[in-house]
Amino acid sequence: MKFSIRDLFLVTVIVALALALAWGIDRWKLVGDYEYILRFERKKRDEAEAEIISREELKKRFIKREFKAHPDFVEFLKTETDLPNSPAPAPNPPQD
Q: What backbone phi and psi angles, to 5 degrees, belong to 6?
């Protein structure tokens, strides 16, 4: 049996279309999996953010005596800034 160039070209086109279709289906499934993972991560992050309690909420709960706190934590609540307040000297004090 003899094959012409036209027959070989036709087989090549059919194989290329089949591979392109398989690749497209794979990408489509991959995008769906990626979107599922993103939705799951967003849900997990939103749940974690909902559990975070602000400093003001902690002060309110402490004032209501809903829980007993360690003395260091009480001092933490009394501070107005989130910056550390260390009694240690600066690393390079200015020279007079």
A: -60, -40
Give the integer Cα–Cα distance in Å for 7 and 83.
Answer: 77
Q: Which pTM was predicted?
A: 0.40
Q: What separation in angstroms does the CA of 18 have from each of 2, 7, 25, 82? A: 25, 17, 11, 61
Supply 36's token pair: 């599922």
Amino acid at 73: F
14, 15, 27, 40, 73 from 9: Cα distances, Å:
9, 10, 27, 46, 78
pLDDT above 90 covers what percent of the chain? Answer: 23
Pairwise CA distance, residues 82 & 42, whole Å: 28
Q: What share of the chain is helix, strand, coil (3-state, %, to 5)?
A: 65, 0, 35
